[in-house]
């Protein structure tokens, strides 16, 4: 297993180049959905955590409006509200449509979101591996 602290720092530095290239709302939506799934990994995604997620994405993608990010967070909540398992599948399906740099950006953002608290727990690992699998990326590259 990689030293998560060093890996986290390296990923943060490398990701900014990818963040700067994101211009389309489809990628933004998928970043938000993947990040939302990571936030929900422990079963609780508080209002405070949602604010942190929105602030983080706003910082990394300042050319998008906060309202766009909030809209996608609310969409994710609505999708999961009716049926959590089916909703999770639907969010993963949409995330999985990303390819190339967008897929890498989504994976990196999900990883960075999960590590905001300094603890990448087993529930987060499972969700992260599901995201990577949907994106067609190798989970071993993040171990």
List the helices and strands and how they pair.
Layout: H1 4-21, H2 25-39, H3 47-60, H4 66-82, H5 84-95, H6 100-114, H7 122-135
Helix pairs in contact: 1-6, 2-3, 2-4, 2-5, 2-6, 2-7, 3-4, 4-5, 6-7
Can you give a write-up of this model?
The protein has 143 residues and is mainly alpha-helical. It is 73% helix and 0% strand. Helix 3 crosses helix 4. The longest helix has 18 residues. The protein is globular. The chain starts with a helix and ends in an 8-residue tail after the last helix. The model has no long low-confidence stretch (mean pLDDT 84).
Distance between the termini: 5 Å
By DSSP (H or I, 4+ residues per run), the number of helices equals: 7
Going by helix content, strand content and strand pairing, the class is mainly alpha
Please write the string of helix (H) and strand (E) elements. HHHHHHH
How many domains make up the 3D coordinates? Answer: 1
List keywords for this structure.
single chain; 143 residues; mainly alpha; TerB-like; 7 helices; 73% helix; 0% strand; globular
Quick recap of the structure?
73% of the residues lie in helices and 0% in strands. The chain has 7 helices and no strands.
């Amino acid at each position: 297993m990689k030293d998560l602290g060093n890996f986290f720092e390296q990923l943060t530095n490398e990701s900014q180049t990818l963040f700067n290239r994101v211009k389309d709302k489809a990628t933004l939506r998928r970043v938000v959905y993947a990040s939302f799934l990571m936030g929900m990994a422990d079963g609780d995604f508080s209002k405070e955590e949602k604010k942190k997620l929105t602030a983080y994405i706003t910082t990394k993608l300042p050319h998008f409006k906060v309202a766009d990010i909030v809209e996608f967070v609310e969409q994710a909540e609505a999708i999961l509200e009716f049926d959590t398992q089916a909703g999770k599948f639907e969010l993963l399906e949409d995330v999985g449509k990303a390819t190339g740099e967008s897929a890498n950006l989504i994976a990196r953002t999900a990883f960075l979101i999960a590590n905001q608290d300094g603890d990448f727990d087993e529930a987060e690992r499972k969700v992260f591996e599901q995201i990577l699998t949907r994106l067609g990326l190798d989970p071993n590259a993040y171990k």
